[in-house]
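lol forgot to send this yesterday, sorry. struct tokens for the thing we talked abt
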């Protein structure tokens, strides 16, 4: 059985100057790939959270008007919405809660309480409920002048579309990184074959098979790729921790923290092994084809 890692006894590939910087290049590629994976899984988790949070929720807004009793209007709207079939609950959002929602945009300021802030009502829709939102909006406007429904679905659809587009871009970046890594390994292997062509010819004369020579190349380059991938992965994880720390240290941030989940964490940990296996397969194919032409 061919070992994933092993030393090249006859070829002494470890002394090649041409592969000295290969682990550095692999480390940089893995760093970028790890960040892409982190963004990919974090965005996927964020999209799922948005969908679960907003799909069954609506918001009713009552515009500020100093000539009317807003508290009475809110009470009327809540009663109307609560009695609507398909509505699980309707809750008036207090003014203090509304002001906290504005803090990320306006900051903490005592003058916020004097702003003409509209009153909001949170509406929870029952699952599989077919409510005519347009009709409900007309009913609400007729009962409470200045009120209207804010439907989250169009906004959510746009956010999901944007998120999916970014996910496709991240996946394309990962494929590009993989392709560049393969090309770099191919050039390094071909350079090694040229440098050791005389030794390879001697090994052929004494009866060494192509598979044996290919094993030495693939084991050596797989080990280089694996050892190069580890620092890149460690630095990427460290950068993710720093990012989450900076996001968490902000009082109000529009940026969500990176959240990989179990699947994302497993994908990150498998990166060094995957790049080693990819290198092993690539090197074996290149070496066998090159040796076939040399014979």
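and heres what i got for the seq, position by position
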């Amino acid at each position: 059985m061919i070992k994933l890692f092993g030393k090249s006894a006859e070829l002494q590939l470890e002394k090649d100057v041409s592969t000295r910087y290969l682990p550095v290049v692999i480390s940089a590629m893995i760093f970028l790939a790890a960040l892409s994976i982190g963004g990919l899984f974090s965005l996927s988790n964020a999209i799922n959270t948005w969908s679960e949070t907003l799909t069954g929720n609506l918001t009713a807004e009552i515009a500020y008007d100093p000539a009317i009793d807003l508290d009475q209007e809110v009470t009327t709207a809540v009663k109307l919405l609560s009695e609507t079939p398909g509505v699980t609950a309707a809750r008036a959002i207090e003014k203090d809660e509304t002001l906290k929602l504005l803090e990320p945009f306006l900051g903490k300021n005592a003058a916020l309480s004097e702003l003409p802030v509209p009153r909001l009502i949170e509406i929870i829709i029952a699952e599989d409920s077919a409510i005519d939102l347009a009709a409900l909006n007309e009913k609400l406007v007729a009962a409470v002048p200045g009120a209207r429904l804010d439907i989250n679905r169009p906004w959510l659809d746009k956010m999901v579309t944007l998120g999916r587009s970014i996910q496709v871009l991240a996946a394309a970046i990962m494929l590009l990184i993989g392709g560049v890594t393969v090309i770099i390994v191919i050039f390094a292997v071909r350079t090694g074959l040229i440098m050791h062509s005389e030794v390879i010819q001697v090994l052929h004369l004494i009866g060494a098979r192509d598979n044996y020579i290919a094993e030495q190349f693939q084991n050596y380059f797989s080990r280089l790729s694996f050892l190069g991938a580890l620092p890149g992965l460690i630095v990427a994880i460290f950068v993710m921790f720093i990012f989450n720390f900076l996001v968490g240290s902000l009082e109000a941030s529009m940026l969500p923290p990176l959240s990989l989940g179990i699947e994302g964490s497993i994908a990150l940990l498998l990166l060094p092994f995957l790049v080693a296996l990819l290198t092993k397969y690539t090197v074996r194919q290149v070496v066998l084809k090159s040796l076939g032409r040399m014979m």
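The chain has two domains: 13-51+157-294, 64-145. anyway ping me if u want another try
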